[in-house]
Amino acid sequence: MSTNTLSHVLHHNEPVLIKLLVLGVASVGKSSLLFRFIDQQWLPEGEKNPTIGVDTWVHKFDVKGKKVVLNIWDTAGDERLRAITSSYYRGTQGIILVYDVTNRSSFEAIAWWFAERGKYVPELAVKMIVGNKSDKSQTRQVSAAEGAAYAARMGCLFIESSAKTAVGVRETFRDVVEHILLNRAVIK
């Protein structure tokens, strides 16, 4: 992709509307990542309620001078509610698959979410795997290298983050949006 093509996309004045879907099992910190990104705050685990169904967030965001309006769908990770999320995939341009670095089973569940995504979302949708709770190094069960290697095999972007400390949070959304804008430039 040439810089000129991206520059062409980024110089239009109207905001770009982008739909993102955030997936992962319960308690990996999906809502915490969003709360940190949008409100720059972190709520301790005892102060949060689990997502039931889906929460939607709208956030205006600047990426390299381009105005972007993110429509972010935060899905419930509870297995009982997974079946209802298939309708949420429609129109999604980016998927953020989140696991907890201190919970190996949440990492292993990414494969299920990835397969589910494949049923409903075009291959051109940008995918990022996020290893959340990286601040909990003492109880880590999944290394950054293992997460990155899996993401590479699946053709996804990868980052580790901590909603608690804000490490990697803004970069997660910025990187996904930049890749979506690049995809749009290639398609046009």
UniProtKB/TrEMBL annotation:
Name it: Small GTPase superfamily
